[in-house]
Amino acid sequence: MKEIDFMSSLHKSTKRDYLARVNDSMYPKDKAAVIAKKFDFDYWDGDRRICYGGYNYIPGRWEKVAKAMIDYYELDSNSKILDVGCGKGYLLYEFTKLLPGIEINGLDISDYALKNSKKEVSQFLTLGNATNLPYKSNFFDLVISINTLHCLHAYELDQSLREMERVGKSNKYLCVESFRNEEEKANLLYWQVTCEAFNNPDSWKWWFKNTGYKGDFSFIYFQ
């Protein structure tokens, strides 16, 4: 188990006005959160004041993440990958470009995301919940989950971490939102619309230890 950063460069590329998010006249934070938690059109492709404001494929954006994971975990065309919370499948698509023939699988709770996923990988994506992964034990060479598990309540988070550990072999990686001080905690509370698990790094590590999750991890912070 190691803390390894694949994601902060993408996270830091977005500029955020935390107070504007909370105080917006049409979509104040509480209203935006109610809408976003449906994980439907408004979450992905609706107004930016709700969530993404148009979650579209941008060539090269996810390629460097896929390349870093391929190099770090020594993946090849015979490897099998699972992305828990795959969204529209953009990261999985980059894996297939870099390693033709690699076996990819994605799972997401959003029917809208899967119906609007990257067409090249849509057939490999499954509608489902992270608490019950429909895959064999010790099956995947790499299991990843990016910006997903912090959206779960405690009773769901416990089972989801156990499921990630169950279906993967030795290599797993997850990225979740966290905070190191009161300023970052406030910013996270202001900005997020789907987070249910508000944990500092030590608390996240407690979750890993108590669920038996032995994979790698990283945190993103709202500075």
Describe it:
A six-stranded parallel sheet has the order 3-2-1-4-5-6, with helices on both faces. It has a single domain (60-220), classed as Vaccinia Virus protein VP39 (Rossmann fold), CATH 3.40.50.150. It has ten helices and six strands; from the N terminus they run H-H-H-H-H-E-H-E-H-E-E-H-E-H-H-E. Strand 2 (103-108), helix 7 (111-115) and strand 3 form a beta-alpha-beta unit. It has helices spanning 8-12, 18-23, 29-36, 41-45, 63-73, 90-98, 111-115, 154-167, 182-191, 201-211, and strands at 80-84, 103-108, 125-127, 142-146, 172-177, 216-220. The model has no long low-confidence stretch (mean pLDDT 96). It is of the alpha/beta class. Helix 5 (63-73) crosses helix 6 (90-98) and helix 8 crosses helix 10 (201-211). Helices cover 38% and strands 13% of the residues. It is globular and about 50 Å long.
Percentage of residues in strands: 5-15%
The helix/strand order is HHHHHEHEHEEHEHHE
Work out the number of β strands. Answer: 6
User: In terms of structural class, how would the helical and strand content be classed?
Assistant: alpha/beta
The number of helical segments is 10
Indicate the mean pLDDT. Answer: 96
The largest sheet is: 6 strands, parallel
For the record, the count of structural domains works out to 1
Q: What is the helix content?
A: 25-40%
Q: Report, as a whole number of angstroms, the end-to-end distance.
A: 26 Å
**At the fourth CATH level, what is the homologous superfamily?**
Vaccinia Virus protein VP39
CATH fold-level label: Rossmann fold
Spans with pLDDT under 50 lasting ≥5 residues? none
CATH uppermost class: Alpha Beta
Principal-axes shape call? globular
Order of neighbouring strands in the sheet with most strands:
3-2-1-4-5-6
